[in-house]
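user: can you give me the structure for this one chain? tokens are fine.
assistant: on it. calling the predictor now.
[tool input]
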Amino acid sequence: MAGLVLIIDDERILADSIAAYLDHHGYGTVVAFSGEDGLVRAESTSPDVAIVDVRLPGMNGIEVLRRLREMLPTVEVLMVTAHASVASAVDAMKLGAFDYVMKPVDLDELRFVVDKARAHQRMRQELTYLKARDRRSGGMSDIVGESPPIRALKEQIARVAALEGTDRGAAPTVLIRGETGTGKEMAARAIHYSSVRASGAFVEINCAAIPTALLEAELFGYERGAYTDAKTAKAGLFEAADGGTLFLDEIGHVELALQLKLLKVIEQKSVRRLGALRTKTVNVRIVTATNRDLEKAIADGEFRDDLYYRINAITLVVPTLRSRGEDIILLARHFLDHYRQQYGFPPKMLSPQAEETLLAYGWPGNVRELAHVIERAALLHAGRVVSVEHLGLNREHRAEPVVVASDGSVQVDFAAGPIVLENVERALIQAALRASGWNRARAAELLGISRETLRYRLEKFDLRPPA
């Protein structure tokens, strides 16, 4: 059925004709011949669309409209009016009527308007659902874990989310750093849905997944005729996120020319569509994320230092999964339950040996890899207990066969198996810190990197001076 339509009209022949016509085209119908009776039927049937005559005996159509909107906020109301009551129809539109139809009623035209009203209602319902779903899936409670690094991250997110300037669009920019798969997008969502902007839009885009020309059009929008295929005007993502948050994932891969335009938007808090003459002020919180070494990109001339300083007002570092200890087990159990609900299989549990294997594994793909491992094990194994062999992980522990010669050259032997690059990097930094007595300037010099890069690495690996 296309939907339920309530018809309120004191002209019985017309009301019955409308009902018969809509019934024939797949709608369900309910007919009432007075405003009072129409409200009673509306309360008992909850129609999707109501067709209401402006001129009714007793309670008039405008009052019926008002009562319907209070009783059923999602119902779409169409007013039927004669030439003499066009002004009343206009008043009805101001009160929230979807549209109005003139008498004598053309049934084909009426069905077209009813179809539009129903489509508009579905769109609003879908939008409401999606916003509610995003709100449920974007809060702080979705960040699973109780380890010290995650507790610290949650505290930082709460503080950042509470920061909102007194000037329009003055919320500080946030840069989220971390390896691939650690959950940078989840941190961005948590900032948005924990802030006063939670009722606004959370708009995200992966800057590395779209060619530069298309990325510019997506971000800034364009006017009709701005380029060959621009048949109609289109608002960009900055405008779509007005009053909310724009999350620019993988910002480290944006080309230099576009970086300059991003910098101007952040500084001026205004955006100009491609092909437009005027700018539009936007109130958007900018959250960015990257797993790229931006300091090295700046040194290589691939990233603007002025943009870096703008997006780096506040930096959050999402910890690696291997640094989160028992959170690995909490997350594994969380994913088991999630996939149980998604696929409808009976509850499953991890064997003690499987949990030991999960804790011992290096997790180069972080939380994303863990989710895939648990999903695969849960789907391919029919039993109630997920054991070690179902995980498909390599449990052997090998020392990294990396040797640094006296001349500074590095010799690497992969014959013994994979090498976790991050373990090597962490060991080098720890050795430099010990050799320098935790003098950061000296340690950075020993490693051949800047103090800013070393500071980021210390945050990334959660390295602290000995007590």
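assistant: here you go. The chain is about 45% helix and 15% strand. The first strand starts at residue 4 and ends at 8.
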